[in-house]
Amino acid sequence: MERHVIESEQVTLLTVILVLAGMAVTWTGCYLLVTRWRQRVIDLPNARSAHSLATPRGGGIAIALAMACLSCALYWLKLLSLTQAVVLLSALPVAIVGFFDDISSLPVRYRLPFHIVIAGLALWVLGPVPEAFFSGWLMLPSILQGAILVLALVWLLNLYNFMDGIDGLAALQCVFVSLAGAFFLRETMPGLMWVCLGLAGCQLSFLFWNWTPARLFMGDSGSTFCGYFLGVLGLLSHYAMALSVWVWVLLMGSFIADTTYTLIRRLMTGHSITEGHATHAYQQLSRRFNSHLGVAFLMMAVNVIWLFPMAYLAAIQPENGVFLAFSGIVPLMLLAAWLGAGRTNN
User: Fold this and answer.
1) Do residues 247 and 321 touch, judged by C-beta distance below 8 A?
2) Residue 55 dihedral angles phi and psi, to the nearest 5°
3) What is the CA radius of gyration of the chain?
4) Are 88 and 71 spatial neighbours (Cβ–Cβ below 8 Å)?
5) Beta carbons of 45 and 54 less than 8 angstroms apart
6) Domain boundaries, the chain
7) C-beta of residue 199 within 8 angstroms of C-beta of residue 205
8) What CA–CA distance (Å, rounded) separates 168 from 179?
9) Would you give per-residue pLDDT tens digits along the chain (346 residues)?
């Protein structure tokens, strides 16, 4: 027993060191992008931008590389299974394609099929979808549920990209979701808990560079990676019957509500949903307040005060996950409507 305790403490210490190493890798990668490679990944402001100065982007690739290394190390420590490690590593190609998009603006006709293929491969590795996915409310064939989850992953990585438009918001959101996920998984899935803590740590390192006024943007390499990575974290915990995927949906509720309502309104008013715009609720607020961090902290307050308690209820009452997800997100969609999300004239 004493030897087991000592070994457990050694593994914990080593894991902490690995998380700190991941933070260092992220910080160093961001430093190199800002100081050495900035001209290759420069983001020039346009009419839709929330910034006025040319700023390098692509900081997300540093986060993705750090998390890939951490996932491999946790597999080596036997804190992650091979399936879990492979599914987590499937986020790296998403980040790499995003980085190429940051450099040379890849057309959506190339990116979208790639995202669908990667999401499909991840679901194939995971295997048949658990029947309890819809909390028992809706029974669908496994192949249909799998197709829905592929589309959900692709939608999640894209909506995270849409929400990465002001300094600090996307990184702070990822920190919140990751820490909340670590809290819920601390007893049931320690390996995924460490993945969540590592992701939060890497985002904090990136925030050093992304704090307003930002010296570096996450870019598509970071926003698509974060959306996809958080999605597969939710699937891994759900497949293990440790934490319902609806808990993760609630933790992501502020991003889901804003993007979903905004695109529905734009679609209904005849606007293209693939064309760039700056009409999300958070963008309307940032112009109204003339503050990026003010909006980011306001959204974090909504996360902590409203969405985290709902997620906690979904964690202890998984049979009510679908009901709680709608109950938590629909009011936020109504709030987005009140704030003018999707409107081009304000």
Assistant:
1) yes
2) -135, 135
3) 19
4) yes
5) yes
6) 2-338
7) no
8) 16
9) 444 444 577 778 889 999 999 999 999 999 999 998 877 777 666 555 566 567 888 999 999 999 999 999 999 999 999 999 999 999 999 999 999 999 888 888 889 999 999 999 999 999 987 766 666 666 777 788 888 899 999 999 999 999 998 999 999 999 999 999 999 999 999 999 999 999 999 999 999 999 988 999 999 999 999 999 999 999 999 999 899 999 999 999 999 999 999 999 988 887 776 676 788 999 999 988 888 989 999 999 999 999 999 999 999 998 899 999 999 999 999 999 999 988 875 4
Length reported for the chain: 346
What is the token pair recorded at 12? 């914990």
Q: How many CA atoms lie within 13 A of 61 on its CB side?
A: 22
Q: How far apart are CA 198 and CA 191, in angstroms?
A: 11
Core vs surface per residue 266-302: b (16+ CB within 10 A) or e:
beeeeeeeeeebbbbbbbbbbeeeebbbebbeebbeb
CA 296 to chain centre: 15
Buried b (16+ CB within 10 A) or exposed e, 97-125: bbbbbbbeeeeeeebeeebeebbbebbee
Residues 75, 16 contacting (CB under 8 angstroms): no
User: Backbone dihedral region of 270: left (phi > 0), alpha (psi from -120 to 50 degrees) or beta?
Assistant: left
Burial class (CB in 10 A: 0-12, 13-18, 19+), 343: middle
> pTM of this prediction?
0.93
